[in-house]
Amino acid sequence: MSLQSALSPLVSAAIEAALGPEHAGADPVLRPSQFADIQANAALALAKRAGRPPRDVAAAIVEHLAADGVLAQVEISGPGFINLTLDDAWIGNRVSAMSADERLGVPRQETQTVPIDYSAPNVAKEMHVGHLRTTVVGDALARTLEHLGHHVIRQNHIGDWGTPFGMLIEHLLEVGEDSDEARLLETDPNAFYQAARGRFESDEDFATRSRSRVVALQAGDAETLRLWTGLVELSTHYFNRIYGTLGVTLTDADLAGESTYNDDLAAICAELEAAGIATMSEGALCVFLEGYTGREGRPVPLIIRKSDGGYGYGTTDLATVRHRVRDLVADRILYVVGAPQSLHLNMVWDTARLAGWLPESVEVVHVQIGNVLGEDRKILRTRSGAPLRLMALLEEAVATARAVIDEARPDLPEETRATIAPQIGIGAVKYADLSVAHDSEYVFDLSRMVSLTGNTGPYLQYAAARVRSIFRTAGVGPEQARGRIVVTEPAERELALELIEFGEVVAQVGAALEPHRLCGYLFQVAQAFSAFYENCPVLKAEDPAVRESRLALCAVTLDVLVTGLGLLGIEAPEEM
Question: What residues pair up with 116 in beta bridges, in sequence order?
């Protein structure tokens, strides 16, 4: 039970009793306060309606406010604020209840089916830093929504179809399916792609064969499809190396590429044209929607069949919407995609609603992804100006973390340092990405990311490792420290108050689709634990009952840190 859920009914009941039933259901407007645990601003909002001064309204509310063992002190301050201080015993009981709850107070919500479209790399192309955020944010949302009880369907909408595959297949045939160059698709796909592109641009016979191969692919030629399948499989091995390094939950079963919908595209066009939603314009089949205009007020079309008879992203994306509603029975569909795709996605969704494929009961959300910037505050690239390879970035993060560990903890065994370096390095990158709003830009700074101080992943990991060290010294496991928690000292109180909020924060992340809220919360928990650690001896507490209470408080802290980091897709090393 969070502070909000505990206090809101009490204040609401007091409002109704003080001002009459016509004010039943009034918002208590509870906010954190520097003067008390929480502040109710209800009097300010209700004074005008009640026709009374705010302090008089506040006094009437306080008079009818039942403490119910929850509140230790209630004060009116300023123009009519009501400062609420919680009872230490109530706080101790709430955090003790968390200790006995395997879900740590996280509510299990009414299940929705939620397809999440994220990552979406291209076959035979390198994953670059631009894929980092959609992959990491999408995975954190998938983990969080599943933890809340929803049925999450991961949808990795890879680019695995279209005209480039003609030249890629022809190049594969030239170099040999088992050649070292073919294996570049697993390690350096850009090299394979650029070699194929070079042949296409320099050799007209090769280009002609490539165009014919595209026709054969689209016609379903068995041998061409076999070769195409080989290309996809080799690229999938490469994707999985990235996903394994990042520690995300995407698997081959989640692949739902453009090719998945190829057989549906003609029907999509036919249905839209028959319904009068799509019309011919300059040889192309287009949808013109109200409110979408470009330069000089000209309508912006959603092209669903090009003048050469081919299909574009609009057609495929319409097919995905229809599939996710009809076949997956989605209640809510999330698209974790770059912010520049907003116009395109909205046109697709509006078209799908006109066609009846996307009912109003199904919510679609664009979880907009901002750019990763270099120190020059421009999109992060290599010195040559090329997009930075994601694997190179991750390898550098692990190497940087290893250097920090070697300097800070040379006493740790080599095997231990080798184990925790990727946990810290990858965790640092993921936390830096997730700790800012997903639609915001941020500067990629590895030296700051791997720091053990400040709002970083390693700082949170270190807090969890420090809790574990207490239990190692005590010679007991955290699971054994489940006694009653008694709160008496200020630092105990502040830590317990933070822990109580865990369930509410996770629920907010699921509702608002904002993982940075969980990052900010976990940072506050780590800071509160640091203050507790400095001010409240645990193992050296003179009173055995105090020792057991503080060990139990440490156990809940560890559970919250490890579970919270896990929802973000970040590991918590045993020691650091």
Answer: 154, 334
Q: What is the pLDDT of residue 105?
A: 95
**Residues 561, 98: Cα–Cα separation, whole Å:** 13
Average pLDDT, the chain: 93
pLDDT tens readout for residues 359-407: 999 999 999 999 888 878 888 775 555 667 899 999 999 999 999 999 9
C-alpha torsion angle, residues 280, 284, 290, 293 (rounded to 10): -130
Residue 99: name the closest of 476, 554, 574 by CA: 554
pLDDT, one tens digit per residue, over 157-193 is 999 998 899 999 999 999 999 999 999 999 899 899 9
Give CA torsion, residues 453, 456, 457, 459, to 10 deg: 20
CA-nearest of 72, 174, 528, 112 to 330 is 112
Please write the tens of the pLDDT for every residue from 44-59: 788 888 889 999 999 9
The pTM of this model reads 0.93
Residue 122: count other Cβ atoms within 10 Å of its Cβ.
18
The rounded distance, in Å, linking the Cα atoms of 400 and 450 is 8
Check whether domain 3-86 has CATH 3.40.50.720, yes or no: no
Tokens of 263: 């057989």
Superfamily of domain 390-567 in the CATH hierarchy: Isoleucyl-tRNA Synthetase; Domain 1 (1.10.730.10)
CATH number of 113-159+261-372: 3.40.50.620
Please give the distance of CA 339 from its chain centroid, rounded to a whole number. Answer: 15
